[in-house]
Please model this.
Amino acid sequence: MKYFIETYGCQMNVHDTERMAGLLEQSGYDPAESDRDADIVIVNTCSVRERAEEKLYTRLGEIKEMSREIGRTPLVVVAGCVAQQEGDRLIKRSKGVVDLVVGTQQVKMLPMLVKETAASRSELFMIDGRPWRPEGRIAIENPYEDPSFPLGIVRRGDPVRAYVTIIEGCNDFCSFCVVPYTRGHERMRSKAEILAEVREAADSGRREVQLLGQIVNHYQAPDDPSCDFPALLEAVHEVPGIDRIRFASPHPRHTSDRVIAAVRDLPKVCKHLHLPVQSGSSRVLAMMRRRHTRGEYLDLVARIRAAIPNLQLSTDIIVGFPGETEADFDETLSLTDGVGYHSIYSFKYSERPNTLASKRMPDDVTDEEKTRRIVALQTLQRSVQSNLFQRSIGTTHQVLVDATSRRHEWELTGRTSGNTVVNFPGPPEWLGKMVDVTIERTGPNSVWGQAVGDPR
Ligand code: 5AD
Ligand code: SF4
Model:
């Protein structure tokens, strides 16, 4: 029996896919090359973007068409944030295509749910701690409401980098954001379990660990009152075999001087912070319920830059939030220009189900205007980034090689500590090695260089 998982969305979802793959392999399934060869097809969905539900139905239609072509119907599972959000509506609306809906907190139950669905030949959905059938509740207890995940099961998709969840869910309720509804309330994993997983990742040869959470720097260990986020970074730093530590995403409000000092003083912690700002206008930030102002954010950036001059910053920005005026948007442009981000992820605002903004604030910026704003923002960012990249020409950086090129066998790709993607010629055996690379030229989203010295 074979499985195929397609993944949309953030690293959290990428990591859930690694967990589901491991669970299925433990129950005897093998990975399939494509959906056509699979007995189980899982669509791991994201709902942060516009029209996520519609796109999913289109995809489900394609799967139905594929089943007709190959004359065989795989078990179709919908997981991830749209699964959590839509629940049994997915079974009803997809008209026989979806067999199983698995919520974001029920990933550990996947093998049991697959078995139950296959045995009963009836659709099943589970989004709230108990499995349901469209016709009513069935009695299977869910022992897994805690954020722990058994060790040794994750099937890591990346040869170099290991994702390790430290917090699940979020209690912040920014007015635009669906995550508290799709990922549930905030639950901290134990320090003991996190460290055990980091050790396991190091033993399996991963040199980089990326700690994941909606607001990673809100971490407080449930099993150690003295362990907050900076203390956790120190503990992870002690694990032998791990050479790089990243984390995503910190919240500006919880980026204390102790967090900044930990990033500065721990050499394995990469000198890159993804610090979502969302808007440059304090008025819009207040409507977004971000609980920081433009001034506070800029002050934080100044403190970070003073402490760690070589650190690179990236961010998330939403354009066209309800009520965002031209003047508000100009403030976003000036903030972007002033901070000098290494990269930005920009989004056109879209109403997400259940959120405060969708209930109380009319989506009043037209789509044309949102497009105009996002294009202006991206054009500005291209020039900010290009200046930054130009200035890096001639400098030498430690690059951890994480991929060989798809186009040329002798081209490698990796990242600097600051998270710049660097391409350079080298043999495939360098995958997973740390190489010093001198930057020679720049491209749209990455730079090119030459290796100097021996890989480590
Ligand atoms: N509309 C547009 N962008 C959004 N994001 C989250 N919710 C929305 C929404 N309703 C963006 C934010 C967040 C990133 C992951 O997605 O910028 O940081
Ligand atoms: Fe990740 Fe948020 Fe998308 Fe869910 S909705 S996959 S948490 S980005």
